[in-house]
Structures are given as C-alpha cells and as structure tokens.
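Sample 3 of the quickstart, ligand zinc ion:
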Amino acid sequence: MSDALLITVAPTGAETAKADCPQLPTTPEEIARTAAECEAAGAAMIHIHVRDTSHQPTLDQALLREWVAAVRESSSLVVQLSTGGSVHDPLEERLKVLDAEPDSCSLTMGTTNFGDDVFLNPWPFVKDLYQLALSRGVAPEFELFDLGQVHALDRLLREYGIPDGGKVHVDFVMGVPGGMPGTAPALVAGVTALPPEVTSWSATGIGRSTLSVAMASLSMGGHLRVGMEDVLTISRGVPVESNAQLVERAVDLGRIAQREPMTPAGCRELLGLG
Ligand code: KMH
Ligand code: ZN
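Result:
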C-alpha cells in the first residue's frame, strides 16, 4: 500500500432521513458545499447517493447528472456514484447509474441482510455491472460486506479479468447488521483473503465500529472511508456537525500513523483512471 492516505467521504447514504438529521447534505447546493469542504479537509474521493427534492433517495438520471456536475464544479474530488442505491431500488435502475458518467462506481460483491431489509446483489447483477463498468471505463470500487464476498471477488476477477487501468480497489464495509462485524479480527481475515490482483483497499465501520475499524485499517496500511452515510455521532451521544468534521478526524488519525492525505490526482492514479 502507498504511504499517502486515501480518504473517501460518503456524505449522505440512502438510509438517514433529512428530518432526523438536518445537517445531512441532500440537495445539489449542499452536496457541492460538502464536496468543497471535504476536499479542503483532506478527502480525495466522494461516494454519492442522490436525494430528490423531498430529500428521498432516488436514482433519477437527471438528478444523478445534476449532482455529479455540482460536485465537479465545486471540487476536484474523484466522483464515485453508488450503484447500491437504497434497499428498495430495482436492479435495472442501479445499472443505469453508470449513464451519469461517474469516475468510479461502487460494486457490492453479494447479497447482504441489511438490518430488517435485504441489500440485493445476485451474481448475474454483479457480473452485468462489472462488465458495464469495464466497457465504460468507470473504475469499480468493490464493496465487501462479508468474508464470502471477498471470495466472490476472486471468482469475478478470474472470470472477467481486471480493469484496463490495471488497478483493483476494494472497500470493506463493516458493522452492518447482517454483514461482518466492525472488528480488527474481521478486517484481518478480510485482508488476508484478498485476491492477489487487489492493489489497494480501504475500510469503514458503521456506527460505533467507526473508530475501531479506522484504527485497525491504519495499523494495516489501509485507506479510510468516513462520512455521515456510515456514522452520525462524533462521540457517544454527540451528533456529527458536518462531513468535513469526520474527514478532519480521519486526517488526524492518519497523521498519527504518519500518513498524509492523498490528493484527488493520487486517487485517480490509485484507481487506474487515465
Ligand atoms: N444503501 C445500501 C443499501 C453502495 O452504496 O454501493 C447500499 C450501499 C452500498 O450504500
Ligand atoms: Zn453507499
């Protein structure tokens, strides 16, 4: 792994209601401001879930394009669109996310229980999405919610090869009720099982696992994803004020590990984007 620390910010997600968390960025103006603040704080990539004018999650193509444009105008962050969407989004619409021409897209390697819901990622969908990303030159970030998904990634790469850019970047999403726990031993197991083609990895811990996963990742030379998609408190009972606050904390943790934040240009290189 490189010494520079990739910090990806996941500022919105699809699970939190604006009414419960007014500081959640849910409009083009708010996402543009968030992107600028998070880049200034040290983020290099943004993982985006779009909301509609009622602040509800949407995969509406016009809004996807509007949000991508807003982030590109206000920052030079690498733009990653979520193809996971919300647990209610149909698979066909999730494939069409790539029409909005992001730099990168999330690609979850298997179906996961997600609290009381099911986050559906059947194998044919995974294969279709991967081939689409390859054909469009969109860099996939493989999301791994469970150890079995690490092995599914191995199978996918064996069947379809690696992206033209020569890079394979994955992100461990830990602590989802239904997925692997957000613990150091679980991260060690996941990293140990990664296929040899993987060139970089990051990790994020949901909710109260956020700090233990971040510190475990840094101790193993990994990168970090942070943001209000994954955690809404900065410490027990204290709400997060902004996504930039979480990025700042990640930068501070990285500096303790003697890792300086990666620039967006460094992230493009890490992802094999031309
Ligand atoms: N909202 C979750 C059901 C992704 O962005 O690719 C799925 C998710 C993963 O957040
Ligand atoms: Zn997401």
